[in-house]
TrEMBL record:
Leader sequence residues: 1-49
Family label: Belongs to the 'GDSL' lipolytic enzyme family.
Gene3D superfamilies: SGNH hydrolase (3.40.50.1110)
An annotated GO BP: lipid catabolic process
Name of the protein described by the UniProt record: SGNH hydrolase-type esterase domain-containing protein
Domain of life: Eukaryota
InterPro entries the UniProt entry points to: GDSL, SGNH_hydro_sf
Keywords attached to this entry: Hydrolase, Lipid degradation, Lipid metabolism, Signal
Keyword match DNA repair: no
One example GO MF annotation: hydrolase activity, acting on ester bonds
């Protein structure tokens, strides 16, 4: 009988535990039991088991969506995997597969994020962050998660700017429209953060928007320059967001908001002088050559994905995610 074992911890480096999914075919229950025993010994010996209750809930867009919209936009691991592993959790179950999840898997938390989501009602997928928070509330109403569970939980919120991209592409807006929209967007984002806090989550981490102007397609290969206007728009969003977080953190509701500086994390990955030696030019290129947005099973990918930063026009490759994650570790430590 084939038995599927999801999310097995693999020790890949001294500082991080990576969880991967794969299947085993086992003949007897005895063998399975022996394997589970072995895995639990590994878990104990590496210090897991201490943070049993800290569930991770993920809300946002494709930067953290590990499958709700059908695909991971990466050649492998994403920031969600690295951050979950940093928090000693397995990658949380995706909302789309909650009904198939075991009780133990649900204990890791849940990922509500969807590729294409923004905070406005109309976006690439018309599935706003508010609807995702609604999905979260529904899980609480159904007692999948209790008040005590939530008090021990961490929320990771990813807003990397889909509303702005939707404005300039589908709605043919200008960059002025993007700048004009920033305050509305950050206000809506803040409203969602308050809602998440209202559910009883005590620690909430949120990404700043990335240097969009340096992403493949926006970066000018001929001029070897990032699009400065897009980067400025990202920085303006981040400035307002940080002001907003300052206010949220003063509102003594016992919840902590942590800013995750995606902008400088990616910026330093792209411009780090030491790493320049290795394939500098390729860093601004998408590794997946199949499409503008790629799934993990791309037919045509770059020669050395392990040197890339970007997987496709809008997303980090596994290597990129790993570098960015490393940059974010000091901030992530505030969640422990
Ligand atoms: C989202 O809603 C808008 C406005 O109702 C509609 O024009 C658009 O086709 C919708 N997009 C999707 C992906 O459903
Ligand atoms: C997943 O990605 C593959 C390859 O990029 C693509 O062909 C497929 O349509 C995607 N599936 C979904 C559900 O988006």
């Amino acid at each position: 009988m084939p038995i599927k074992l999801d999310h097995v911890f693999l020790k890949t480096s001294p500082t991080s535990q990576i969880s991967l999914s794969f299947s085993f075919s086992m003949e007897t229950k005895g063998k399975l039991f022996a394997l589970l025993l072995l895995l639990s010994l590994v878990a104990v010996s590496t210090g897991h088991g201490e943070k049993q209750n800290a569930r991770l809930f993920v809300i946002g867009d494709s930067f953290v969506d590990t499958g709700n919209m059908g695909n991971r936009t990466s050649d492998g691991l994403m920031l969600t995997d690295y951050i979950a592993s940093f928090l000693h959790r397995r990658t949380p179950v995706i909302y789309a597969q909650r009904k198939k999840a075991s009780k133990s898997e649900l204990e890791d938390g849940m990922n509500f994020a969807r590729g294409g989501s923004g905070v406005l009602d109309v976006s690439f997928n018309n599935y706003s962050m508010t609807l995702q928070v609604g999905n979260f509330k529904e899980q609480i109403a159904q007692n999948v998660y209790t008040k005590v569970d939530l008090e021990n939980s961490i929320a990771l919120v990813s807003y990397t700017g889909n509303d702005y991209l939707y404005k300039t592409t589908r709605q043919k807006g200008t960059m002025k429209d993007v700048f004009d929209q920033t305050k509305t967007i950050v206000d809506l984002l803040t409203k969602n953060l308050r809602e998440i806090r209202g559910l009883g989550v005590k620690k909430i981490a949120i990404f700043g928007t990335p240097p969009r102007g340096c992403f493949p397609g926006m970066y000018s290969e001929t001029l070897r320059k990032c699009d400065r206007t897009w980067n400025k728009a990202s920085r303006q969003h981040n400035k307002l967001l940080k002001e907003s977080l300052k206010i949220l953190n003063k509102e003594r509701h016992g919840s902590k908001f942590v800013y995750l500086d995606l902008y400088n994390a990616i910026d330093s990955a792209l411009f780090d002088k030491i790493k320049e030696i290795v394939g500098f030019a390729n860093r601004f290129k998408a590794c997946c050559l199949d499409a503008h947005m790629c799934g993990p099973i791309a037919q045509k990918k770059c020669k050395n994905p392990e040197l890339s930063i970007f997987w496709d026009a809008g997303h980090l490759s596994q290597n990129g995610a790993n570098i960015v994650y490393t940059y974010l570790v000091p901030s992530l430590s505030q969640l422990l």
